[in-house]
């Protein structure tokens, strides 16, 4: 990390027994090798602030012990594959600052270990999946600066309720709920008043109406 390495991510890395792969703050370009997701030992993969391109493949669902995936500030396109729901150990998922489009897959709600979900600054559309509000360990949810519509889901919500999480070192920003700069409509749900861990609640630049609960 923190070098000026150029070129693509080498394919041979998928043949090494890597547990942590940190390529942050370089000049890597091209696509992430699909074979990398087949690494049975990989627990953390971070390659933020590069020039990576292409889309996330369905093979991402093979990285079943992955706990931390940070690919923010790249040039990733396409949709988030539904296979992401197979990553039950995933705690941090950060794709902020790419060019992703399409809906947020409801399968993300199957990632029961999520503490941080940051999909801000993309081109995502559709509604916020109801299943996300049932992620009991979620402490940071950033969906700002997209084209999301519909209402803010809160039915039977359990996120932002837990005062402690298994590993706080994985939580990037404790208590952040940022849904600003979208096209969300309807009222602010009363259930948000029960989110005891929310420190920063950002709902500006939407189409919300009604009163503050």
Automatic annotation (TrEMBL):
Coiled-coil region(s): none
Location of the protein in the cell: Membrane
GO cellular component, as recorded: membrane
Molecular functions per Gene Ontology: kinase activity
Domain of life: Eukaryota
Gene3D superfamilies, sorted: Ribonuclease Inhibitor (3.80.10.10)
Keywords for this protein: Glycoprotein, Kinase, Leucine-rich repeat, Membrane, Receptor, Repeat, Signal, Transferase
PANTHER family, sorted: OS01G0149700 PROTEIN, OS01G0162200 PROTEIN
Protein name: Leucine-rich repeat receptor protein kinase EXS-like
Organism this protein belongs to: Trifolium medium
């Amino acid at each position: 990390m923190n070098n000026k390495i150029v070129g693509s991510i080498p394919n041979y890395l998928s043949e090494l027994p890597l547990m942590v792969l940190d390529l942050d703050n370089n000049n890597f370009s091209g696509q992430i090798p699909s074979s990398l997701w087949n690494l049975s030992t990989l627990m953390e993969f971070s390659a933020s602030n590069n020039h990576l391109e292409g889309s996330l493949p369905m093979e991402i669902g093979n990285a079943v012990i992955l706990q931390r995936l940070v690919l923010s500030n790249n040039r990733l396109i396409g949709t988030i594959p539904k296979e992401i729901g197979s990553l039950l150990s995933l705690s941090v998922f950060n794709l902020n600052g790419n060019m992703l489009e399409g809906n947020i897959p409801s399968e993300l709600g199957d990632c029961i270990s999520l503490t941080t979900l940051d999909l801000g600054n993309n081109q995502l559309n559709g509604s916020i999946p109801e299943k996300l509000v049932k992620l009991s360990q979620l402490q940071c949810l950033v969906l700002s600066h997209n084209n999301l519509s519909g209402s803010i889901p809160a039915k039977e919500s359990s996120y932002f309720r837990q005062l402690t999480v298994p590993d706080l070192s994985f939580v990037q920003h404790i208590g952040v709920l940022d849904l600003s700069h979208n096209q969300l409509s309807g009222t602010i749900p009363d259930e948000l008043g029960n989110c005891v861990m929310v420190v920063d609640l950002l709902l500006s630049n939407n189409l919300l109406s009604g009163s503050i609960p």
